[in-house]
Every structure is written in C-alpha cells, then in structure tokens.
Design brief:
The protein is an alpha+beta fold and 492 residues long. The protein is 34% helix and 20% strand.
Length: 492
Amino acid sequence: MSIRSRLLICAAPFALAGCAAGLGSAPPVTAGQAAPISASERQQGTQARDQIVSEYGGVYQNARVDAMARRVGQRIAVQSGLSSDPGSFTVTVLDTPVNNAFATPGGYVYVTRGLMALMNDEAELAGVLGHEVAHVAARHSQKRQTASQTNSVLGALGQVLVGAVTGNSRLGQYLGQGIGTGAQLATLGYSRSQEAQADNLGVKYLKSAGYDTGALASVLDDLARQDALDQQLSGNTRSVPEWASTHPDSADRVRAALTEAQQIGGTTLPRDRDAYLSAIDGMLYGDNPDNGIIDGRDFLHPKLRIAFTVPQGFTMSNSAQAVTIKGPNTQAMFSTAAYSGNLQNYVGKVLQDLGVSSGTSAPVQRTTINGIPAAYAQTRANTQSGQVDVTVFAYETSANQAYHFVVLTPAGQGLGAAGSMVQSFRRLSAQQAAAIKPKYVRVVTVQSGDTPASLAARMAFTDHKLDRFLALNGMSANATLQAGQKVKIVTR
C-alpha cells in the first residue's frame, strides 16, 4: 500500500472465477477477422492507461521482462485481426504480485509480474495474452459496460454483505472504489459464453502464431494449482461450486481448452521455455517492500514502519491504494487519508466520505492500541442484500499521519472476527523494518541428485516450501527432475 488516492478502473482480470455481466450467448467471432481498432477505442484505451498503471503499482522496470512481454504480446495480438501492425499494441508489465492479465480497447495489453512468475514458457504467456486480446476482438467489454449500467459495482464485495446501497450512493461509490480495487476490481466480469469464446479464440491465435496450442490449458491448470495453494496457505479452503459461479469451473475450462487444441492441432509447436526463463531470471517476486508486504497473515510496511495481522481464514490483497481484506462474513479495507491532527475529525471525515451523516453513526470513541492513539465509530447501512454494520477504526502514528480500517459485517455483528485485526495494529522497530527484504525469481539448473524437495529447501519461505516450488514450476507431487533441466526457485 502506498499513499495514493483511490481510483476506479475498468479492466477484466484473467481469472478462474468471479462475477459476470450476463449469461447470454456470445455472437460468433472468427479468429483473425476482428474489426480493426477504431479511433474511439484507441482514445478509450489511452484514457484508461494512467489509471490502470497507477492502480497496479506502476510499470515494472526490467528491460528483459519488458522486451519478452512486448515481443510475445504483439506476436499473439496481431493474430486477432485488430491490426496487422505489431506496433499498434502496447504491452505493459505491471509491478504487482497479483496473478492477472487483461486488455482494453485500443490495443492496450497488460500482464502482471506475478502472473509472469507463475508461467513457465513463452507459449503460456502467449495463451494468456491471446485470451485477453480475444475479449477485445470480440468486443466483450462493450457488452460488459452495457450490463454494468444495470448492475451494482459492489459485486466485488460479495453477495453476503453488500449490493447497491439503498439511498446511500456515496457509500456504494466509496466501497466500489476502495475495497474493489487491486486484485478484486470493482467491475463486472465476463459471462460464461464470453470466457469460453475467448479461450477458443486464444487457442486459435496460438496456432497461427506458431506456439503450442496446449499452452492455454496448461497455464489455466497452473492457475488452478496456485489458487488451491493460496487457499491452503490462508486457511480458507472453502470452494464455490460451479453452479454458484457464472464463470466456467476451472477443471472444465482446462478440459475445453485442451480439447480445442487437440482438434485444431499444433500441440507439438514450440513452447520456447529457455528463452522465457532466461528473461524472468532475477525478477522481483511477491510484494515490493516499498509498498508493504503480505507475509502469511501479517501485513508489514517497512517504510511506514507499521503492521497488522488478520485472523486465520482471512485473505489480503495489497494494491497501490489500499490493503483489501476478506474473511468469513467480513470485508475490510486498510488505507489512509489526509490528517490534520484531530483523530476524531479524521474518523468523522472517513464516515462522511462513506456518505454517512453524523446523526446515523455512533459517537466517535477514543482508545489506545499497542501504545498508539486510536479512535473508532460504527454505523449501519442499508444494501440490497440487507443491512450491514460499517466500522471505521483509525490510528494516529504521528502529528500529521493517520491510518484506518473500514470494516463491513452483517448487521448486529459489529467488528466480529475483525476485532483481533484492529487490535493488532502496531509499529515496527527499525530492526524489524530492516529485516524485511525483497524476494526474487531465480532460474537454476538441475544437477544430478537434485529432487523437488532438495530444490524447494532453497526457497525463501518458512512454510510449505515444496508446495510452493511445485506450484511455481507447474509440477505435480510425483514430478521427477532431469539433470540439466531449468527450474524456478524464490530467493532473497
């Protein structure tokens, strides 16, 4: 989390599950025959670019990674028919550990360094970017924007807690902009048919670009494996059944992509693994300490010298604007705002920004948390899904700096399980802050006698080293290694 204003951007994430704009059938689109990029689409993409780059932590500054992403992205994008000129497509690597990729109208294609670390060859990168370009080629975003006019942007907050806020549009806007940023964008996703169509087109683009057509299926499988590990690490192993999601089940999606690849052929085309691994060797992995890091259940910010801990079963996502937090029956955001030196006024201003009038909230109360002056207030808001409790909990770390949580829970629950989280806010000592070091992807050559377990022991983690190694390399638990093979590890 860095100190920036909140933004709301429109970009559809490359994801396995999420909310969708609709369930109607996607009209046919022929690979390579998309309508050319229009002037208005180019303008739309250009206008969105600054917001997207800011939201995702800026452009990742690494010449080799940038060159790889640009070359592969342009090679796959021209297969769509949007333009035959590779220079018409601007491919950007975003400086965030979130596993994501997306494209916007106008020839703008984005991929995060987090997702690039997870992929294992050029073909997988091409498959992901081809899928996203296909959404643009099929003009899915226009259909999504039309649907968004009649759907709440608060879908990113979850069905249990919020919907469109009744009679309180400012609260809805704030939550949509604040908690729905970063990894969980406050936007509507694509429908099942649109996702399936983008997968289908992406596989065809792979073949025409000369890449292994099975690469999209393999990267979808890698993402599913990483998602399962993330759930295990967070203690949140609850899964959403396929019928509860408007996106295809990940296993079904992998099978469909592989079937399409086998039908059109090209599964023996190049993967270009060595070139890809050479490009990402030394790439930053995980959070950039300059913006704070997530370490298990801890959020640690060495520059700001602050930290907090979420309860077991909660998950966090760190964006440029805020840390978003999800847990059972709980949504929360940790952020900051301008501070004039009066903590009670600060809490009141946050509530005001939420659209809450002073007459509907409890009085601001003062307390001390781990030696830090704090203040809090709670109110209740109406949503389409029912009433929710909204708590603002703020801390003064200096005469001109304060931070706060906004916590949403079902009405009557108050802070609920988030109580321990707001109590955990603390300062980091200079020694603790100095001990927080960045991690990097390192590509190593397997030596005779090396095993997944022996290589995993070199990973810069304190837990689940083997699981992390296998997920990072797209390997199963019974994987065997051969001398001379190149694999990824994560070191400091």
